[in-house]
Design goal:
Blueprint lengths: L2 H17 L2 H6 L5 H26 L6 H13 L14 H32 L2 H13 L14
Helix pairs in contact: 1-3, 4-5
Length: about 150
């Protein structure tokens, strides 16, 4: 496979796995723990590979390490969901509250991630900040823009 196709596949894998948080997998009665744990580990490995690749592309210097590590922590923290999934037989109001709580938690996590990205951008050179912007806008070098069928 070409490197372009592999990068696109990696970006799609991260997006798919991000939608299946580790907590959701562990709490879902239909997914056995024996399946959820290996998937969680594969996801963690994939995220680490993508972070390592981005750090290499950015050429993070020693004086930028604190901002980079704060970004890594914020990104990893955005995959944890603390809301306990209701029982399958729960009423509609319980499910609505669960979804609202998850949405609020996700909004908080995204705000922390945005703050970490802003701090990282300040620590980067102009060229590094441009590379970061390209990587985060698209998830890969070519992105999900309108010309690629995305909604952006």
């Amino acid at each position: 496979m070409s490197s372009r196709l592999l990068r696109t596949f990696d970006a799609l894998s991260v997006a798919l796995l991000a939608s299946l948080s580790a907590a959701t997998l562990a709490q879902n009665a239909t997914v056995p723990t024996s399946v959820a744990r290996p998937l969680q580990q594969r996801f963690a490995d994939l995220v680490q590979r993508r972070l390592d690749h981005l750090a290499q592309r950015l050429q993070i210097r020693a004086d930028q390490q604190d901002a980079w590590q704060a970004y890594e922590r914020a990104l990893r923290g955005s995959f944890a969901m603390s809301a306990r999934r209701p029982d399958v037989g729960a009423d509609a109001a319980t499910w609505a509250r669960y979804r609202a709580d998850r949405a609020a938690e996700r909004a908080r996590q995204l705000a922390q991630e945005a703050d970490a990205i802003a701090a990282l951008q300040k620590a980067l050179s102009a060229a590094q900040a441009q590379t970061l912007g390209q990587a985060l806008r698209s998830g890969s070098e070519h992105g999900r823009g309108r010309e690629h069928g995305g909604r952006y």
